[in-house]
Amino acid sequence: MNKIAIEAKNLSFYYPNSDKPSISNIDLKIPQNKVLALIGPSGCGKSTLLRCFNRMHCLYDGSTYKGEIIFEDKNILKKKTDLIALRTQIGMIFQKPTPFPMSIFENVAYGLRLKGIKNKMELFPKVEKALKNASLWNEVKDRLDGSADSLSGGQQQRLCIARAIAIEPEILLFDEPTSALDPISTEAIEDLLKDLKKKMSIIIVTHNMQQAQRVSDYTAFMYLGKLIEIDKTQHIFENPKEKLTREYIKGKFG
């Protein structure tokens, strides 16, 4: 496996007022500049695990982590971790596109402004670069001042990706990013993922096993909050080591 971008060590997570962990004793290494797909039946803990990697659960009081998540040689589960800074390094794209109620340009510039870049002459090339990297520039370059709400669902999702990559994160987390999109938009996002991994590491949660095979280098199978197996994607789908993985791949449950 390549150099490690981020690693979970004996990681468990408890939602507020729960004595039972939603994910339990997860050991997982995320390789750098690769796409890792998290697969498994609904409710198995995929999205819960994904949101641990940028401490998204901490937006709600009462959540509890146990174990470690090592990123840049530090355990990001420690209380002193700067969560705002962490989320600029580990961005997230959600299932439903979430453009801000502002112009296309300002959506992409938003994070850059938070980082202290205010001058439009300095902002513009960075916004242009992000939109190009998100394969959206040619579609929006003549209407940057237009509302983001005017874009199609697939364009809005690529706009959210542009917004995330404008601040140059090291890792991007994708939670079912194409489940609400049409096939053409889905293909555009999948092509984009293959290109983005040249610049960053990617973790994607997907229920679509064909999508996992198309876009990922590694696949991890989860069941009932536990990590059952991780391997190169081809191995997982052609010759899984674990019986549970094999049965899920064959559609015997899920």
TrEMBL record:
One of its GO terms (biological process) is phosphate ion transmembrane transport. Residues 6-249 form the ABC transporter domain. Pfam families: ABC_tran (PF00005). Gene3D superfamilies: P-loop containing nucleotide triphosphate hydrolases. InterPro entries: AAA+_ATPase, ABC_transporter-like_ATP-bd, ABC_transporter-like_CS, P-loop_NTPase, PstB-like. SMART domains: AAA. This is Phosphate ABC transporter ATP-binding protein PstB. It comes from Helicobacter cappadocius.
